[in-house]
């Protein structure tokens, strides 16, 4: 399988290349407009084919592309490859405009071509079982899910805040993928004309879902709390946590020596993406969740006036 990597910035180098370059039977093609970066990384990772124009990947016969470039470029690049019938992975967000998201998924449906989004938090090995495996929660009813992703001294404009960052927390609690904008309760704080804090919550089947981001927090941090009937789990930094079941406390942790990118969900997400490329399709429920998360992000932007 041959995969084109478009955009070789910080996230691609830190989170994706360490996994992809070690994947068996996978051939990579690098693409970035910076020739010096292209030559350096191609040499470092022993990549034979590299181009500065993403359109050149078609002639090289790629089976799929992974887009890690700036959000503003996602729509044009994704549309180009979908029109070529080539599977597309986009590091979240798909775009920062819901209408464009709909356009791309309509095109993907027309071309019968997968359009995959990179939400690594869906694959966190320590947390995912509590949201997808009833045997772990002993069949107890979900009562609440709260995801907090905070940053130090980083107020920003609303659309960038919501689509480029808050969307992580928003998607992580949007496990049903069926939330209406009328379900949302939104609370905000502003600082010097910029959005500083955003809290969004809704209730579905009696469970309460909350996504929170404070960009004037004392420290960059991420916390997750999951409540079932008399069962509570709290996770810090996504890789350690505690469980309280009927008053009994238990430490939660991954096995020693678990690679960092495994613990952060990137390895499992990439495995899922490559399986989608190989099979040429992905689950309808995944498409629905991807669209619904971006729909909610757009609704929040329309309602929030910093």
From TrEMBL:
Pfam families: GFO_IDH_MocA (PF01408). It comes from the Bacteria. Gene3D superfamilies: Dihydrodipicolinate Reductase, domain 2, NAD(P)-binding Rossmann-like Domain. Residues 1-119 form the Gfo/Idh/MocA-like oxidoreductase N-terminal domain. This is Gfo/Idh/MocA family oxidoreductase.
């Amino acid at each position: 399988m041959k995969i084109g990597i478009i955009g070789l910035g910080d996230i691609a180098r830190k989170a994706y290349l360490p996994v992809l370059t070690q994947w068996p039977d996978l051939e990579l093609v690098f693409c970035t407009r910076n020739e010096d970066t292209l030559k350096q990384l191609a040499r470092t990772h022993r990549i034979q084919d590299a181009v500065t124009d993403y359109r050149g990947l078609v002639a090289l016969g790629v089976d799929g592309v992974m887009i890690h470039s700036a959000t503003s470029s996602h729509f044009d690049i994704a549309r180009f490859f979908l029109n070529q019938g080539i599977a597309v992975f986009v590091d979240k967000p798909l775009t920062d405009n819901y209408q464009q998201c709909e356009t791309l998924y309509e095109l993907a449906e027309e071309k019968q071509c997968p359009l995959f989004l990179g939400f690594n938090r869906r694959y966190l090995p320590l947390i995912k079982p509590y949201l997808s495996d009833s045997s772990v929660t002993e069949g107890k009813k979900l009562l609440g899910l709260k995801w907090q992703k905070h940053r130090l001294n980083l107020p920003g404009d609303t659309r960038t805040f919501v689509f480029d960052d808050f969307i992580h927390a928003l998607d992580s609690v949007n496990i049903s993928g069926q939330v209406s904008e009328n379900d949302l309760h939104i609370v905000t704080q502003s600082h010097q004309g910029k959005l500083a804090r955003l809290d969004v919550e809704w209730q579905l089947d009696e469970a309460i879902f909350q996504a929170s981001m404070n960009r004037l927090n004392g420290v960059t941090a991420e916390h997750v709390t999951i409540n079932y009937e008399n069962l509570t789990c709290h996770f810090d930094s996504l890789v350690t946590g505690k469980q309280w079941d009927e008053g009994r406390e238990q430490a939660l942790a991954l096995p020693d020596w678990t690679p960092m990118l495994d613990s952060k969900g990137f390895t499992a997400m990439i495995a899922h993406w490559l399986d989608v490329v190989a099979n040429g399709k992905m689950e309808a429920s995944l498409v629905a969740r991807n669209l619904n998360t971006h729909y909610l992000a757009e609704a929040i932007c329309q309602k929030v006036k910093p």
